[in-house]
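Job type: complex structure
Entries:
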Amino acid sequence: MIGVYLLGALAIAVILFFSRNKLFVYSLAGLFLVLQSLFTTYACMHYGNNELVYFKFDSLGIILLVTMSIIAIPAFIHSYIYIENHKENPQTRAIYLTSMVLLIMAISAGYLSNHIAVTWIFTEITTLSASALIYHHRNKLALEGTWKYVFICAISITFIFIGILFLSLSLQHAGSDDLSFSNLLARRAELNPVWLRMAFLFIFTGFTAKLGLVPMFTAGIDAKDKAPAPAGALFATVLMNLGFVGIFRFYIVVANTPLLHWAQLVVGSAAFLSLFVSTVYMLKVKNIKRMFAYSGIEHMGIVMLGVAAGGIGYYAAVLHIILHAFVKSSLFFQFNQLYRVFQDKSIYHIGNYFKYNTTGAMVLLLGFISATAMPPSGMFVSEFLIFKSLFDAGQIILLIAVLLLLTMIIWAFGKNIFKVLFVPAVGFDDSNVEKISPWESLSQFVLLATAVYLGLNPPAIFVQMLKESVSLLPL
Amino acid sequence: MIHVLLITFIITLFYMAIANRLMTYIKVLALQGVILFFVVFIQLNEINTLNLVLILLETIVFKSLAVPIFLGYLLKRNNITREAEPFLPNFVSLVITTFIVVITILISNTIKDTHLDKIFFVVALSTLFFGLYLIATRRKIITHVMGYMVIENGVFVLSLAVGNEMPMLVNLGILLDIFASVLILGIFLNKIGDVFKDVDVDQLSNLKDY
């Protein structure tokens, strides 16, 4: 089935690229969504199966795949609104939709791959399709963002490849050349620790470009800022999750070797530095879209802290990354409506949003509450569990530092959001503000509600899947 | 023989560190492609025809013909001045490059591994770090791309060091190389030349937060 899915998505992408008829293009995009949902259903029904040698429908892959298929639907709806509002010409529209289809296909396949080289290949494809999306506006700033993204991603992809080379050296000591995660795990005792260490460093550094951690986070921020918001929503959520999958699957292998403590130190310090960096930028940032992007860096820092702390932290990390995907994507979808009202991204030129678009302002307010993990947000539960895992691991000083940084982030985030919501912008002429239909916010409410539901009252099957996805890690 | 070739490869790095003109960089890149071809030809035993053709394509056609010609074309079309404009004097560059090579030799001496040819490891690692150094210390975007090409060459050598037992990885490396270079060169450097005149990194600093 995954072969059918990949071929189908590829065929749809190729036809989309060459078609110019409006109705035909949108029905093709709809067809892709149907294919995506069918494939997701199929993956859920065939849980645990191997397909095409390199793919496995395991629990981590499936929950992330379902998350993505849910987010993909509003992403296409908002893309439609975006394209129609901007009156894009048929060629730009075709390129945009093709890249979206390719991006979603590559991310899906990357989630499910059971082989580190296959994950790597699909990560490369996401770079290609993402760069086409970032360059959507064809202006100087978009070009700058695209260039930085492509260059940094190219270097990180090279780093991952170097890591894979070191990993294969490490594996040669075990007398095997099969780089699948299951084989690595089975032969964990025979892996050469020196090369494994090098491999982990390089692979971790490489995937941080997608995950959005120190040291390679910079390009992702520009990408999320310059790409159209519906595409930015995918970059800020499901694409980051792909980086997480890459690191997490390999981390499972390393955690089962004597290198566990060293790996915890590496991941933990990168995570704490990311939190620190995101705090610094959150206090400074004036562009609201970039602020959302930095908030993503903060959350990835928290997730990786959970992974480094271990214990309940593993479970909480996977839960957090899923809830974050729902919340952050709804904020990015809302951004488009905000931009249509004010025609600006700067905090100085937007304000009193409640007056112009009450429903949208509600989304922004609820999204803020969710993203800062205040109850009743679902992320409160996962963040609380991560803090608990840090406490259990005896990292009290680290925990205090993290809480201090988070307080500053909430303050900065709140200051900007409340300015946008309530304080009128100086010199803003509201005589011809666009009226936004409340229905456009519906999907965002659904996403936010999903995050609350999954966090506070998770269905038994969901909890079961989460537990299975971290079951291979040592306690 | 193979060691002579690899040492020549290292010498090209030193030459690149003190080169002044962009054309010299391009010629060195082409030379590196040729050297890599001979290294592969000698190194990989039991090579089948298909692999040989692929590697020939990658090293000779791609690395030493297509990329240099395209870079030269870009130089001409965008009227990029011929100086490399380093941030540091050439003498300092030379010293730092020497440092890089010495340190990688020291690192590789601490590693005892029968599966790995040490000289490959030294060449690969120093090429990698030299590429990063080149990116960090040159002003023009096109030199960044050249630095990336140098990194790619380093990765290619590394994949050869490992690839004697795993030819699949060499092929993957080739895939990476061609994919990333085409993406960087073909699409964007072309476009950047259209939009920004005489491309400096200083011009690419509008996306920021303060």
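Summary: Residues 1-258 of chain A form one domain. Chain A touches chain B at residues 117, 120-121, 124, 127-128, 131, 135, 140-141, 143-148, 150-151, 154-155, 157-158, 161-162, 164-165, 168-169, 172-173, 177, 192, 194-195, 222, 225-226, 281, 284-287, 290 (CB under 8 Å).
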